[in-house]
Amino acid sequence: MASPYEGPVQSLVDELGRLPGIGPKSAQRIAFYLLKAAPEDAKRLAKAVVEAKERVSWCRRCFNFAEGEFCVYCRDDRRDPSVLCVVEEPRDIVAVERTQEYRGRYHVLLGAISPIEGIGPEQLKIKELLSRVGDEGVKEVILATNPNIEGEATAMYLARLLKPLGLRVTRIASGLPVGGDLEYADEVTLGRALEGRREVDA
Ligand code: ZN
Question: 87: which strand partners?
Fold first, then answer.
């Protein structure tokens, strides 16, 4: 099918349609919204995208988003360095922080093991996790990957690597909606899941 719109409109629809969770209809709706919006509103959005891309990268230690070398949690001396909470994505840190139950540090894997999508352990920040555990005097690793097939497989894989190192390795408790993502869990449920975390048998 030929593109129904002229050059710049079609490019905008195409670019928006590449975003996760945005189907063709939503892409059109957002494009028209932006075209109708006041120029300064549209420019503010464009500027936010450009600035975020220029100024934000990955924390050198935990792979959270960071402005500069290290993220806010790695820079904060009040956080307990002996506990590491392992999550799949930076957005999961936001979910854990919302519970106000956690005062340790984080490690972001930047994904989960998924044979279907061709994602193996070597594509995740697992090597980096292992070297942190050795270097930073970590005593407990909390596996807070998502409660779905990929997240469980990743947690089991990590538990098998970490347990022989003599650490406490825990998994957030069940009670989270199975198949879901951490980010959709409300803070009370996730807070309970953290508190009720259990030692992993691997
Ligand atoms: Zn960090």
Answer: 108
9: CA distance to ligand 1 center in Å? 39
Kindly provide the b/e burial profile for residues 44-79, where b requires at least 16 CB atoms within 10 angstroms of the residue's own CB.
eeeeeeeeeeeeeebbebbbbebeeeebebbeeeee
CA of 43 to the centre of ligand 1 (A): 31
pLDDT in tens, 60-81: 999 999 999 999 999 999 999 9
Contacts (Cβ under 8 Å, ≥6 apart) of 44? none
- Specify the 3-state DSSP secondary structure of 64: coil
Inter-residue contact 92 to 182 (CB < 8 Å) = yes
More confident residue, 152 or 192: 152
Dist. CA 67–CA 83, nearest whole Å: 23
Dist CA 145 CA 171 (whole Å): 8
The closest alpha carbon to 80, from 59, 66, 101, 95, belongs to 101
22 CA distance to ligand 1 centroid (A)? Answer: 29
